[in-house]
Amino acid sequence: MRGGRGALGGPVVAAAVILPEKFRHRRLNDSKQLAPELCEKIYSDLVSNPKVRRTVGTARFIVNANHGIM
């Protein structure tokens, strides 16, 4: 998934990853520069590592003409 501009409809989704101190992965780089197959391999490496913490959250929002997105 790529980050970008705010959502115009549907839920807002945010993700976070906490890597261990001094963590290194020799093939990890900017995901936009990696082939999709390599991204999948790196993803598998990260989710199989118990020291790598991750979470995803979603929130619904409403658009109010006076206050914008809430």
> Uncertain spans, ≥5 residues at pLDDT below 50?
none
Please compute the radius of gyration using only Cα atoms.
Answer: 16 Å
**SSE succession:** EHEEE
How many strands appear in the DSSP assignment?
Answer: 4
Strand proportion, as a percent range, falls in: 25-35%
How far apart, in Å, are the first and last alpha carbons?
24 Å
Main beta sheet: strand number and arrangement? 2 strands, antiparallel
Q: How would you sum up the global shape?
A: elongated
Structural commentary:
There is one protein chain. By secondary structure, the chain is an alpha+beta fold. The protein has a domain at about 25-70. The protein has one helix and four strands. It has a two-stranded antiparallel sheet. It has a two-stranded antiparallel sheet with strand order 3-4. A hairpin with a 3-residue loop joins strand 3 (about 65) and strand 4 (about 70). It is elongated, with a radius of gyration of 16 Å.
